[in-house]
């Protein structure tokens, strides 16, 4: 009886960890989506000659690459769900 209770507790713990882990990646994807939108806005402004956007562009490009690398590492470690992978693809297609 004790072994069954231990298995049940460990299964529930793993489910909760999975939800928390998934929520963490959802937050990363929210940040990534918002950052890509901001990046696109500054890119368009820099094309029109906005000096502030031109000065922010290199910093934003580097930050965007860091966020993208973090998501790629998460995908490689199989931390992302299928829904989250589809969301990453959708965000990346908006930048193209």
Low-confidence stretches: 5-17
N-to-C terminal Cα separation, in Å?
57 Å
Order of helices and strands: HHH
Number of strands: 0
Rough outline: elongated
Q: What is the tally of helical segments?
A: 3
* Overall pLDDT score: 79
Task: Write a structural description.
The protein has one domain (2-95). Mean pLDDT is 79; it is low at 5-17. It contains 3 helices and no strands. α1 (2-47) packs antiparallel against α2 (51-76) and α1 runs parallel beside α3. The chain is mainly alpha-helical and 96 residues long. The longest helix is centred in the first third of the chain and has 46 residues, at 2-47. 90% of the residues lie in helices and 0% in strands.
Provide a brief overview of the structure.
This protein has 96 residues and is mainly α. It is built from 3 helices and no strands.
Features:
96 residues, single chain, mainly alpha, 90% helix, elongated
Secondary-structure blueprint of this entry?
Elements: H1 2-47, H2 51-76, H3 82-95
Helix pairs in contact: 1-2, 1-3
């Amino acid at each position: 009886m004790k072994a069954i209770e231990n298995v049940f507790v460990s299964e529930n713990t793993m489910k909760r960890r999975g939800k928390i882990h998934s929520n963490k990646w959802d937050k990363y994807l929210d940040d990534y989506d918002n950052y890509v939108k901001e990046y696109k806005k500054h890119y368009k402004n820099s094309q029109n000659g906005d000096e502030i956007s031109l000065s922010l562009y290199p910093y934003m490009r580097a930050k965007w690459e860091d966020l993208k690398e973090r998501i790629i590492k998460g995908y490689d470690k199989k931390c992302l769900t299928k829904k989250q992978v589809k969301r990453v693809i959708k965000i990346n297609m908006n930048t193209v």
